[in-house]
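Lay summary. Proteins are chains of building blocks that fold into shapes, and those shapes determine what they do. In this project we predict the shape from the chain. Here is one chain we studied, written as its sequence of building blocks.
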Amino acid sequence: MSSSLAYALPPVQPAVAPRPHEALQQHPGFQRLFRPGALTVGLILPLETHPSRPAPTMRDHVAMAQRADALGFGALWMRDVPFYDPEYGDTAHIFESMTYIGYLAAATQNIVLGTTGIVLPTHEPMYLAKQAATLDQLSGGRLVLGLSSGDRYSDYPMLGLDFETRGERYRDAFSVFRTLTEQSFPNFHSARFGGSPGKLDLVPKPPFGRIPSIAVGRSQQSTPWLAENLDGLLAFTPSPDGLESISDDWQAHVRTAAGEGAFKPLSLGGYLDLSSHPDEPFRRVPGGFRAGRNGLVNYLERAQAAGLSHAALNPKVSRQPYAEILDELAEYVLPHFPSHV
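And here is the predicted shape, written in a compact code that computers can read:
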């Protein structure tokens, strides 16, 4: 952790936040993962295979995170699953994501710590802003915040929230989040999440001026709105033949929203069932795909050529021990798609 990020209170006079592209050019996490024309590889937690069980054991999870860091993977991505619903049969990595990021930040050095994604309509955005800015400070700028609207209906009545209005809540919460993290002593009002007459300020502020925030899926929003307001998009794994069309559509909306030459990365994410046959090609499975290591490289090369910038892979459905998967990916896949230094 860099001592140069020691936090100082901001001046009382309102400060103008850096323009988004300027802030993100300085953000270590964003720069490690996202650059035009080059694809990087990250891992969706847990770092453990458990294809036939709803919950991982989380045994040796810190050692596995440190190993992924040392091997050069781009990111560790955490999902936001607060409750176990047997109908879904999946508890992700069990631990609360923002707390877990803080724990892993202290145990790792370079790897990005991201979310795929925080279910924004179910979170109070002022506290989320405080959590995210704190984590970005303490990790040395390694946080990339993926934000989703959630696909688990059962979470919403549990929290006393209306599932059908989650798209509206997403936009409202995102506006509050951006306002508090990027403005000093803001004067604002939200229909759902309070407001301020400009006499209070959120501390700390993001150390590099902006917390990279990407949409995970469409989040009940239009593509033009996402392209204008978010810093990128993580889509669910397209088929090989669909990579160019999804990329062309996203880039066209980014150009319209932010101008020619604007860069807002497109990424993909999903389950990886890593085959023991190296040349097995891409084959769709529920929630992702199956491929051998060479088939995976071929698919990711097509994704890179189509303009995608990152692949977040979740090998939990694979059969091999996770340590073997890490070693195989590090030896045969990562050399083609290194993280940016």
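What the prediction tells us: Confidence is low (pLDDT under 50) at residues 1-7, 10-20.
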